[in-house]
Amino acid sequence: MPDRRSANRTMFWRVLRRSLFANRGRLFVILLALGAGAAITAALLNLQVDAKRRITTDFSSFGPNVIIAPRESHASLSSGATLPETIFDQLNLDSPLEGARASLYLIAEASSPPHPQKRVRLVVAGTRTLQRSKGIAAPSSESQPYNSNQHCFAGDRLASRMHLQVSDGVVLRNGDRKEECGIAQIWVSGDAEDDQIVPSLGVAQRLAGLPGRVSLIQLTLRGTPQEMNSYIAGLRQRFPDVEVRPLREFTQAQANIYNRISGILTATVAVVLILTALCVMAAMTNVAMERKNDVGLMKAIGGSVRRVLRLFLAEAALLGLAGGMIGAAIGIVISIGLGKAVFGVAAQPRLIVYPISVALTVIVAILAAYPLRRLVQIRPASVFRGEE
Predict the structure, then answer these.
(1) Which of 19, 99, 192, 375, by CA, is between 20 and 30 Å from 331?
(2) 333 & 309 share domain
(3) Is 363 within a domain?
(4) 155 and 125 in contact (C-beta within 8 Å)?
(5) pLDDT class for 159, splitting at 50, 70, 90?
(6) What is the pTM of this model?
(7) By the 8 A CB rule, do 45 and 263 touch?
(8) Cis peptide preceding 96, ω within 30 of 0
(9) Facing residues of 129 across strands?
């Protein structure tokens, strides 16, 4: 019995090799169709996976997308409502939280030592961060003791109005409270921050007489909409006395753009696989017509229908495996160039894409072998008489 099974396996692989190389032209056409389909599929899938990372990275560069504000008012600056700084202390830089910034806003007067009588009313935005901002480092100091040499940042319009330059000193006054800081950098943001001065949070707290309080906490989240919504829900449970609000224009736009790109790429992959299956099916139909005599002979010598079908399905699977492995590798390389053209930065190859593309190609090849079912109906006697 084992010898018979071994002989059957040997005969199976011998017939399979013969059928694979009987018509090399047809074999090349099928491999070309499967390889092209696998290449396009791998390229688009790699772009789809990389697009998710690229979009979340690009949107996070626009700034915070979630704020923690006092529940009493949406405008903490005008109402004077504040939050305990301990909320900020409990935040950890862990996915999807990429950065956080606590700010205390107040209206104060500023003057420079050369012109102490010339005072300018402005917004002081004391700031403490968990992460340095890209390009310009926001001040991130604790509530430290008074230090006349401590640094602050000035907006471009404020600096022009007060004729400030880097390393100049500034005196901040709020009633009978006074703080001093040195201009470490002048920045241009293009919004209201250009009219503000940004010292450390401790300076603003002492100037406002609000130790341990902040006006607003801004969070920068990076991830899928589901991950961010889950994180926001967790914050609301941890801090029920404050309001945690996502900036919908950022999060919704991020979700919409990714969903559109993902939908387009998925639909394109589906169309490519269908077209590949049709091309392979047409080639397999011709193969079925050419194999009638071989199938009639196999049935005449005792080959079962199941064994005949298994033989041709194995042939289709091997063709799909070969075409998928070659085409998927080429497709991932192509996606690197496409990513550079679409996003301006080369797409990173994703290892998960390769086995998925190969598996899809094998499945398409097996499904495209459907015309070979006609071979099951062939009768050996009719083939030998020339009737089929």
Answers:
(1) 19
(2) yes
(3) yes
(4) no
(5) confident
(6) 0.51
(7) no
(8) yes
(9) 101
